[in-house]
Every structure is written in C-alpha cells, then in structure tokens.
Amino acid sequence: MRIVISGLPIDVQKKNIKNMHLQVKPPDGHVVISAPLSVDDKAIEAYARTQLGFIKRSIAQFQDQPRASKRQYVSGETMYIWGKQYFLVFKPDNQKNSFIIQNQNIILSMSAKSTVTQRSAYVKEEYRKILKKEIEKRLPKWEKQTGLKCDSWQTKYMVTKWGSCSIDKKKLWFNLQLAQKPYSCLDYIILHELTHLITRKHDATFNDHMDRYMPNWRCIRKELNDSRLDYYEAQNDSHLSRMVE
Questions:
Q1: Domain with 153 in it: what CATH number?
Q2: Quick one: 47 and 138 in the same domain?
Q3: Is the pLDDT reported for residue 180 higher than 50?
Q4: Model pTM?
Q5: Which residue has the higher pLDDT, 244 or 118?
Q6: Which of 70, 163, 173, 226 could form a disulfide with 231 if both were Cys (CB 3.0 to 4.6 A apart)?
C-alpha cells in the first residue's frame, strides 16, 4: 500500500508486529512504514505527519552523499579496490575478457564493441571474485572469535544495504561494493551481520556485542556510510527535491 503525505509517497507494509516503524532508506531516500496489522490507515497517516521533520533531514543527507559519476568503463576513470585508487586502462580485445591489476592501473580488456552494460556486468563479477576471496579468509576468523557461525553466505550488488542477515536461515549477504572499501569496512560488516544472529535489532545487546569485539565500530560505520557510493539513477526523485527545498 502507498500513501502520500505532503506530496511525499510512503510505502506502507502491514506486518505481525507490535509497534510502527519508519525508515528513510538509501540511496534515494524512499520512505517505508511498517505497521501492525490492526492499525488503520488514518493512524498510519497521522504517524507519518509527525515524522515529516525527520524525513526531510534524512532525505537531505542522502542527496548530499557523494556518489561516483556514471561510468563508461573507458581509460582514465578511477576505480577502487580495498580503499586504494586505481586508474582504468581499457584495451580492446576481441579474443578474451580480462581484468588485471597492474601497479596503479586496472587493465580491462574486452571487445571494442562491448556496451557499457556488458562492461559493468563483467567488472562486477571481477569485484565479486575479489570480495569472496577476502570473505573466505576473514569470516572464519570472526566466527571463531565471537562464537557465532552462519550456515551460508553470498554476495550481491545492493543499492540500499552494505550487508544483511537472514536470521531464520542463518545466511549472510554482502554488498559487492564492499570490495571497493578498506578492509576494516568489510570486517565491520561481517561482525555486524554475525551479531544479528543473536539480536534482530540495533539494540543494547547489539551495541554491547559490537563494543566487545570492535570498540571503534562506530567510527568505521561512519567512514563507510560517508564514503562514495556507485552512481545510481533514482526512480522519479522529483518529490525528494521538493521536500528538501
């Protein structure tokens, strides 16, 4: 269900929960309200109106967040691996695709006729290999240190989360963009998602567990959330600009 408050569309999800919750989600600041099944629409609308100040501030933060320009995957563009900057060198090759890190450069070889979409898909798969290799080394260390163990994990490209945890299945997900960030950011997300195996919320239990194993986790979280994200074309974000103005 979707409601509109002061020109702002809000998605409403009714669930088997006790209290209402409002989220302004990245990357474009879309608003979601989770409400108990028993709450009527008028009560949800009234609740949304009381949160307009918070919504405006949150949207403004997302719009101010730095993002990379839209990539064309041509020579001269900058790319990052584990927080280190590289320069892309595109070399046409009709025989095979390759992604080679060489000194300060990333040499991308693909057909000269390859499209931006094809190049993007190939580079994402290379980032997936890089990320998976590092998770395979770091996740077991954190599992051993914390005594928490997931049953499985996967990587995928996400625009709203750095990671997630399916508590019932004990499965962790990691955003491919983490391969662009410093190693400390990956460690933070690994610990963050493992901690959700003992609590769904970011509550006192969550904070205490994070403090115990990573005392500086708040600083790393800020670094990660303040870092540049991939280019993203928001869907119909004109209402967001009006709200901020």
A1: 3.30.2010.10
A2: no
A3: yes
A4: 0.70
A5: 118
A6: 70
Write out the two tokens for 164.
Answer: 């997630």
Strand partners, 123: none
How would DSSP label each residue in the chain?
A: -EEEETTEEEEEEEES-SS-EEEEETTTTEEEEEEETT--HHHHHHHHHHTHHHHHHHHHHHHHS-BPPPP---TT-EEEETTEEEEEEEEE-SS--EEEEETTEEEEEE-TT--HHHHHHHHHHHHHHHHHHHHHHHHHHHHHHHS---SEEEEE--SS-SEEEETTTTEEEEEGGGGGS-HHHHHHHHHHHHHTTT-SSSSHHHHHHHHHH-TTHHHHHHHHHHSPBPP---SS-HHHHHHH-
Pairwise CA distance, residues 200 & 34, whole Å: 15
Domain that holds residue 160: 116-226
Residue 173 lies in a domain: yes
pLDDT value at residue 237: 39
